[in-house]
Amino acid sequence: MDGATAPTAATVLILLGPPGAGKGTQARMLEEKFGLVQLSTGDLLREAVAAGTEAGKAAKAVMEAGDLVSDDIVIAILRDRLEKPDCAKGVILDGFPRTTVQADALGALLQERGQSVNAAISMEVQDDAMVERISGRFTCGNCGEGYHDTFKPTATTGTCDKCGSTEMKRRADDNAETVAQRLEAYHAQTAPLIAYYERSGALSRIDAMGAIEEIASNLSHVVAKVTA
Fold this sequence. Notes:
By secondary structure, the chain is α/β, with parallel strands linked by helices. Helices cover 46% and strands 15% of the residues. It has 9 helices and 8 strands. It has helices at 23-34, 41-51, 54-64, 71-82, 100-112, 130-135, 176-190, 192-200, 212-227; strands spanning 11-16, 37-40, 90-94, 119-124, 137-140, 146-148, 168-169, 203-207. The protein has a 5-stranded parallel beta sheet with strand order 2-3-1-4-8, sandwiched between helices.
């Protein structure tokens, strides 16, 4: 890509943390505050398939065959997405990369564009506290706003603060057994990314066990430094 058009000023943030760490909630708050765009792997795949891009067609064929979408296809979809005007200020990657191999591929893609990972933020939690946190989660079925029975209840029971919908949803797998399995998978596969980005100097650690507003303040402090 021509260096004159490469969006070198665009920020790239990665949120790291196990299921229940609050990555989605905090990413949405960072989006609003800093003008960034949250990109999750699932959303990227769905959008690319719906748009019928070349990478989207490849992903659709793989998914219809019941297979996992390869890293190459995900990177191709991410490459297309980063070209969109709404990503001009930067992006927050949630759920990608998950492995050091994916991190290498992401680094190569960003290098092509004259970019790099500005910050990989590890949202650190206590495993034994995750059961309460995850089992209490629910979302608005209309707008997707996230809530929690204890930490972030709706102002009016059963009604979304953001859009007023009364359609609330809970994930069927938000129970103790599956939470333990997901935490085990995270530590085995994804936690090595913390060491990966620590070596590169991009890692920041945030205590994600406090109040949502306190966590958001600490995250904003890190983001403000790398976007200045």
